[in-house]
Amino acid sequence: MSNDNAHVESLFRTLKYVPAWPEKGFSTLEEARAWVKRFVNWYNEEHRHSGIRYVTPCQRHSGETRILLAQRKLVYEAVKELNPSRCSGAIRGV
């Protein structure tokens, strides 16, 4: 039986493969801490997560998700109306 934590492993994978990851590592502990601080800010404030319908965690926790998804749905519906042949089914993820 595995003691792995899937959520932490997912975060570490994102952390390790983000384009800004320093390939040569860090020279000092302070440099590593500063990088992780910037990463956490990006991860929570800018990075859109597929598991929460491509919004940021901050948007999700602040309650903005409902408004954002409603706006997104309007855009998708307008696009579908303009070019119905490109949209074969129901709008997903909104």
Question: What do you see in this structure?
Answer:
The structure is a single chain. This protein has 94 residues and is mostly helical. 56% of the residues lie in helices and 0% in strands. It has helices spanning 6-17, 29-45, 57-62, 65-82. It is elongated and about 55 Å long. This is Integrase catalytic domain-containing protein. It comes from Izhakiella australiensis. One of its GO terms (molecular function) is nucleic acid binding.
Q: What percent of residues are in strands?
A: under 5%
Main beta sheet strand tally, sense and closure = none
pLDDT < 50 stretches: none
- Helix proportion of residues, in percent? 55-70%
Radius of gyration: 18 Å
Shape designation: elongated
The H-and-E topology, N to C, reads as: HHHH
Number of helices: 4
For the residues shown, what is the average pLDDT? 87
Report the structural category: mainly alpha
In angstroms, what separates the terminal alpha carbons? 37 Å
Number of domains: 1
Tell me how many strands there are: 0
Protein name: Integrase catalytic domain-containing protein
Pfam families: rve_3 (PF13683)
Domain Integrase catalytic: 3-57
GO molecular function: nucleic acid binding
Give the gist of this structure.
InterPro entries: Integrase_cat-core, RNaseH-like_sf, RNaseH_sf. One of its GO terms (molecular function) is nucleic acid binding. By secondary structure, this protein is mainly α.
